[in-house]
What we know:
The chain is mostly helical. It has helices at residues 34-40, 71-79, 86-93, 97-110, 127-139; strands at 57-60, 84-85, 113-116. Helix 3 (86-93) packs across helix 4 (97-110). The longest helix has 14 residues, at 97-110.
Amino acid sequence: MTPPQRQRRHPRHQPSAPPPAPGAAPQEGEKKNPERLYVIGGGDADGERAELDLVTLIVARADDPPASATPEQAAVLRLCSAPLSVAELSAYLNLPFSVVTVLLTELLTTGLVHARAPIIRQKVADRSLLEAVMHGLQKL
């Protein structure tokens, strides 16, 4: 005896997805709320920003964020206990580079973080080092 075969019923109309919860992170493909980014950036009223590149390293000067710091500023200070580039901060905070630049400008003016240029290695190695390596290899 064979078991009975069930037929799948198809709905006549597709139910709409429930609206996202307030404050929930946007899903893949959804647009971010531009008003929220404006509030995070503090409005950028004066328009002056620090000259920061994607590879500029940011280091926090204080261990604990002050009580007056916004949640985003506190997150930057916690992340920058070790040097991080502006690009990494932007990725970790899931914020655009321009908004992170505004946040960092505020933190730089208050003296809570320090910005420094990345350490660039020499393009050509030191001649004495190369000679020492060559002589070491010849002795093997």
